[in-house]
Every structure is written in C-alpha cells, then in structure tokens.
Amino acid sequence: MAQDAGWGGGAYTGAPHGGVPYGGPPGWGGWVPPPKPGVIPLAPLRLGDLLGGAFTTMGRYGKQLFGLAAALYGGALALMGLAVATAYGAVGDSLERVVSLGYDEEPATGDASALVITGVALGLLAFVTMLAVTGLMYAAVPAVVQEAVLGRAVTIATVWRRARAALMPVMGTLFLTILIVFVPMALLMAGFVGVIAASFSTASGAGGAVVLTIGILGAVATGPLAMWLWVKFSLAPAIVVFERCGPVTALRRSSRLVSGDWWRVFGVLLLVYVMAAVAGYFIQLPFVFLGLFPSMLGSASLDDDPTLAAILAMTAGYFVAMMLGQLASQIVSTTFPQLVTALLYVDRRIRTEDLGPVLAEAAGVPRQGGPYPPPYPPPHGAGQW
C-alpha cells in the first residue's frame, strides 16, 4: 500500500450495514468495541475522542509536528530579522533624521519616501512569508493525521514533501475563505473610513454618521452568514491534503460533509480555538516578563539625549523575547486547531460515508465478526487511503 496514497473523495450514500460498527448492535452479546489502530477509534467520534486524538497525535508525532513548525516559523522569523537589519542598514540615516525632528518640523521628501517604501516592502514580505508558512502548516498537520489515524509512522521528510505538494491548493482555500469572512469586516471598516473622511471635510458630520451606520448594519447582517460559510468550509484545507483536490472542489466537499452537523462542528471549532488562544497567551507570558529585565537594565544606562541606536539596543532584548514567545504561541495556536479539524473530517466521513471499515482494512486490522460492507471501489477503497 503506497504511503502517499490519498484518501479519495466523492459521495457515498448510505451505510451498507446500517451504520452498526463492529460485531452487531450495541448491547448484543457479540458486540466488540471498534478497532483503534491509531490515535482514535474507527467509529463516530465524541468530543473526548477528538480532543484526546489531537493530544495523542501531538505526543506520538511531536517531532514531525512541532519540529517542522519550529523550523518553518523560526525560518520566517530569521528571514524577517535579516530583512529588517538590511533595511535599517539602507535607511538608518533617514530614520535617525526623522526621529530627531521636532514637533513643528517636516521630514525631507527623500527621507519620508525612503521610509515609506521600505515599510511597505517589509510589510509585503512579512505577509507573503507568513501566508506561505501558514499554508505549509495547514497542509502538514493533515498529512500527519492521515498516518496517525492508522497508527503508522511517518518521517519529517515525508510530511514536508506532502505539505509542499499541497501548498498552493491549501493557500487557495485559505484565500477564498478569508475573502468570505472579510466581507463584514470590510463593511465595518468602510463605515469608519467614511466617518474619518467626513470629519476632515467641510460638510457636516451627518454624512459620516450615515456611512458608519450603514457599515455597522452591513456587518451585523453579513456577519452570521460569514460565520456560517466559514464553518461550512472549515474542512477544506484538510480535504485538499486527504483527497488531493483543488480549492473549489475542496470547498464544495467540505460543505457537503458539514451539512446536517453545522452546530456540532461550530461548537467543536469554537472550543478548540478558544483553548488554543488561552494556551498561546500563557505561553507568551514568561517571555514578556523575561524581556522586561534587559529593557529596564538598559534604560538605566541611557543618556539624557539618547540616540536611536541606543534606544534600539535597549529594547532589542525585549523584542527578541517577544518574538520567541510569539513563535512558541503561534506553533501551538496553529497546530492544535488543525489537528482537531483534520479529525473532524475523519469523523464526518465515518458518520456519512461509513469510512470506519475501510480505515480498519487500510490499517490491517483483522475482521472481528458482524456484518461488513462489500469491498469498496475507488475512490473509497483501502488502496486509495
């Protein structure tokens, strides 16, 4: 069985053995628990199974998950640090002159334009870098779960190869999902921009208030729809990896799988994202306190009129500690929710497409009695796993 084999997609209608898992209906003498070759039982998953499967995956495949995440986010942080250092070497003099200006002094046109261009370039580089790293992690986590469900080993090189192959489709699904969620935010931002524009104009502020009201009402009206669509499409990044399909196909497939169980999927996702946010906050706290000490010690040695270089040197320790804390927090806040999301995908296919026996066959679990479905043709057969 090829280790890179996909899971297969498509629609399967009906459980051929009536949805009964293994060994007959519950309560009968021949009933046996469903097999568990990997991190979850091959049966419909409860909340405890989803969370337990995610934590077990982090324990068993920590090197693959956190090692790759640390390398990706650490590489992105190092790249941005190098870019900032290079930019400071190029426009450091302009920055010194602008910072040293008084409140009533205007910066030179050359200094202002150099700083603006450099800031925009650094912002674009940070956006593209973080988008690529996030896309790789959204692709790498399902690649690990694909093997963890079956209890199979997987190397970092294999996870990296699969994540790199799925990067562009995963980024496409993320981009489309962000566009959907961005609609109510854009309406609200448009309202605030209208108020600001009206405040600088000679006309009365009534027009700005009307624009703000329209923006708020538009956000309230479209916000629930955006949330509903976000949950419907939440499984799409995992589907890209599991089923090797494009962004639009993955969005449609996610919508079909979530259909009929929207509230449960929403509740699970809300819980895991809150858990990840809380964990990320507590991870960052020690780094914040650690960064305060060198800053306080450095401030005691500053002159009455410190230079920009001296100020940057004083705050360097704080920023380094903050970046390290953000790095550790980002690894957890990205990895854990995607683990649960990937397991939700498996759960929805077990519930709607009776995938459990197919997974048992793919994992090499011997049959335990009871009715079994006939062999599945592609794309649902074990060979497509």
From TrEMBL:
Keywords: Membrane, Transmembrane, Transmembrane helix. The keyword Transmembrane applies. The chain crosses the membrane at residues 65-92, 112-145, 166-197, 209-231, 262-287, 307-328. It holds the Pfam family DUF7847. It comes from the Bacteria. InterPro entries: DUF7847. Residues 95-342 form the DUF7847 domain. This is DUF7847 domain-containing protein. It comes from Streptomyces salyersiae. The lineage of its organism: Bacteria, Bacillati, Actinomycetota, Actinomycetes, Kitasatosporales.
